[in-house]
Amino acid sequence: MRRHRPVVEVPDVVGLGADDACAIVRRAGLVPAGPEGMPAPEDGVVVAQAPIGTAGAEQGATVVLITQHGRRPSDDPITPPPTEEADTLQPA
């Protein structure tokens, strides 16, 4: 008879850098991996994962992380929205 391992919640790591995502997955008791049996990604930004975040998985299960190279959205500068003042001020 096979013993079941405890079920843990899969963390949602989409949007994080590969290093941070792998560390979080490991802390949850899961094993990060790349797609199609590749090793865990070492760089890039996680754009998808399986199983999805908040799903349940047996402790020690694999979480596939798909990464894309480039900057994280949080690295982009924040552009303030235009002010209403600029819209309402008109020459007389």
Could you describe the 3D structure shown?
Residues 68-92 are annotated as: Disordered. Residues 4-69 form the PASTA domain. This is PASTA domain-containing protein. It is a single chain. With 92 residues, this protein is an alpha+beta fold. The chain contains two helices and five strands, in the order E-H-E-E-E-E-H. The chain has helices at 18-27, 84-88, and strands spanning 7-9, 31-33, 45-50, 56-58, 62-68. The strands form two sheets. It has a three-stranded mixed sheet with strand order 2-5-3. A two-stranded antiparallel sheet has the order 1-4. The longest helix has 10 residues, at 18-27. It starts with 6 loop residues before the first strand and ends with a helix. The mean pLDDT is 86.
Task: Chart the SSEs and their pairings.
Elements (H helix, E strand, L loop, with lengths): L6 E3 L8 H10 L3 E3 L11 E6 L5 E3 L3 E7 L15 H5 L4
Parallel strand pairs: 2-5
Antiparallel strand pairs: 1-4, 3-5
Which features characterize this protein?
single chain, alpha+beta, 3-stranded mixed β-sheet, two-stranded antiparallel ribbon, 92 residues, 2 helices
Overall strand count: 5
Number of helices: 2
Order of helices and strands: EHEEEEH
Main β-sheet description: 3 strands, mixed
Mean pLDDT: 86
Into which percentage range does the β-strand content fall? Answer: 15-25%
Low-confidence spans: none
Alpha-carbon distance between the two ends: 86 Å
As a percent range, the share of helical residues equals 10-25%
Rg (CA only): 20 Å
* Helix-strand category: alpha+beta
How would you write the strand order of the largest sheet?
2-5-3
Shape: globular
InterPro entries: PASTA_dom (IPR005543)
Domain PASTA: 4-69
Region (Disordered): 68-92
Protein name: PASTA domain-containing protein
